Amino acid sequence: MKAAVLALLVLAPVSAAAATADEVYAIYARGDYEQAVRAGEASNSAAGMATAARAVLADDVLRDSPCMPCLQRAESLARQAVALDPHHAFGQVWLAVALGYQARITGAVKARMANTPAQSKTALDQAVHDDPGNAFAVSALGGWHVEVVRGGGSFLAGLAYGASEKEALALFDRAVKLAPDNVAVHYQIGLSLAGFDFRKYQTRIGAEFKAAAASPPRTAYEKKIRERAGELLSLMDSRDAFDTRVRKYQGFPD
């Protein structure tokens, strides 16, 4: 009887009003994204708000098509996290990620007009400075370099934003060393390079997807993207299908 009661307590939703940052993360990790948002908001903490933003982003990434209102909601939550504590790295990371996904919907010209690349870089630089061992922050900064070079070419990217392909690769290598068995880190590196230059980085892309597919998922989200990594691996010899799937998973509209 006691065991049954304990099991019910473990499985029961955590009260949003009473949730700690760890409890908010646990709700997110099991895939209850909307509940994680409510609990994160109720926590009124930088960590809780950041996890709420992360939950909205996870839900958006797993949708069949990108959702701008969802990304704007994630941005708002991340900005609240940053306002509560600008040195909490994950608030800055998810702010940059939300802005990056929005830019893929609006397009490069509107993103530049809104100063999105610079805002994202500022957020990621702060995150890496405050938490240099944060593999998500480091890999996201690498992804920022790749996206800016992809969008503007190496010369203009370097001139306008200081972005470089060389720095992206160095950051990706560093992120992998920091988290060698992290599904999300390997997956995002592979996806970023796949959308950048498949021919040049084909071997690295395959290695990152293989590592993602072989790593243990720690969250419901990682379980889903590990499946995506396996799917992309199986499509690498069918370039049209692979490129279409990469573009979809990167959050570009049809």
What's a concise summary of this model?
This protein is mostly helical. It has helices spanning 2-11, 21-29, 33-43, 46-61, 68-84, 89-106, 108-113, 116-130, 135-161, 165-178, 183-194, 198-214, 220-235, 239-249. The protein has two domains: 1-123, Serine Threonine Protein Phosphatase 5, Tetratricopeptide repeat, CATH 1.25.40; 132-254, no CATH class.
Architecture overview:
This protein has 14 helices and no strands. By secondary structure, the chain is an all-alpha fold. It has two domains: 1-123, Serine Threonine Protein Phosphatase 5, Tetratricopeptide repeat (Alpha Horseshoe); 132-254, no CATH class. Helix 4 runs parallel beside helix 6 (89-106) and helix 6 (89-106) packs across helix 9. The longest helix is centred in the middle third of the chain and has 27 residues, at 135-161. It is globular and about 50 Å long.
